[in-house]
Design a protein that fits this description.
The chain is an alpha+beta fold. Helix content is 37%, strand content 20%. A hairpin with a 2-residue loop joins β1 and β2 (152-157). α1 packs antiparallel against α2 (43-80). It binds copper (II) ion. Copper (II) ion binds at residues 148, 203, 238, 240, 242, 246, 249.
Length: 282
């Protein structure tokens, strides 16, 4: 019976390791980008994945190591009964208070590993989240404002000047602004920035293929930047359970070459500023 429990407890960690090993082949892993190579669709996303894999390696080694140690203790314990191997029949069980040296070691080593991870990820974190560390190309300002509300994404673009070029996006809505719902269009091939807001509760702006996730917090305007190498459609989801219609907040991000994007904005402008009166022939 003791052997049964030993095998039972070892079955689960072994299953967990095998499932993790097979998971990418079953597509139970990171969302695939349009390139189909299984990698993140943005350069920063790849660096985030690298951090993930580094932590996965550290935790896997720790997990396998502790499970092997556990298995060893269970197995030898099952063999011995309640007594050490050299115990006489009827001898009392022995107790141990543990090892002071071992405890010092398994406190210092994880602390060192955590400190290493904390320092090692700082560059990626700063580039991802700290406004001053954003790439130069996005320092000029956001191309669109995304407002999450129950249960949709409202997107505000700047209007166009007389030559048909986008005006700068103002903090407050302007009469010239253009709007879409659940359809975010941005240029590809360069870093772009949006401003994120929430009109009601907390939502989360999630681009799984780009590894971008940022909470939308009522009362805050949060800049978010990302870059797509490939012009494609990407999923835009809400990753914060925000109410009964949370599942409906599925939108898309369409990235296209800059000129095409400007053309799309001009079409949107023509559509949204049309007064319905046919042009009069002179
Ligand atoms: Cu939401």
């Amino acid at each position: 019976m003791k052997r049964f429990w030993c095998l039972f407890f070892m079955f689960w960690p072994i299953t967990a390791v095998i499932v993790c090993w097979l998971a990418p082949g079953w597509n139970w892993w990171f969302p695939q980008g349009p390139a189909g190579d299984g990698l993140a669709s943005s350069p920063l996303g790849r660096r985030i994945d690298d951090l993930f894999y580094m932590i996965l390696v550290i935790t896997s080694i720790t997990f396998v190591g502790t499970q092997v140690a556990l298995g060893y203790v269970l197995f030898t314990g099952a063999r011995r009964g309640d007594q050490p191997a050299d115990a006489e029949e009827g001898e009392k069980a022995w107790y141990t208070h543990g090892s002071h040296n071992l405890e010092v070691m398994w406190s210092i080593v994880p602390a060192g590993i955590l400190l290493f991870i904390a320092l090692y990820q700082m560059d990626v974190w700063a580039e991802y989240r700290v406004r001053n560390e954003f790439p130069k190309q996005v320092q000029s300002g956001p191309l669109a404002e995304v407002t999450a509300r129950q249960f949709e994404w409202r997107i505000r673009y700047p209007g166009l000047d007389e030559e048909g070029n986008p005006l700068p996006l103002m903090a407050e809505p302007q009469p010239t602004d253009l709007y879409t719902v659940n359809d975010l269009h941005l240029p590809s091939g360069k870093p772009v920035m949006i401003n994120l807001r929430s009109a009601d509760v907390q939502h989360s702006f999630f681009l799984p293929e780009l590894r971008v996730k940022q909470d939308a917090v009522p009362g805050l305007v949060i800049p978010v930047w990302f870059e797509t190498k490939k012009s494609a459609n990407y999923a835009l989801l809400c990753a914060e359970l925000c109410g009964w219609g949370h599942y409906k907040m599925k939108a898309r991000l369409v990235t296209q070459p800059e000129e095409e994007w400007r053309g799309w904005l001009r079409d949107l402008h023509a559509e949204q500023t049309d007064d319905g009166v046919p042009e009069q022939a002179e």
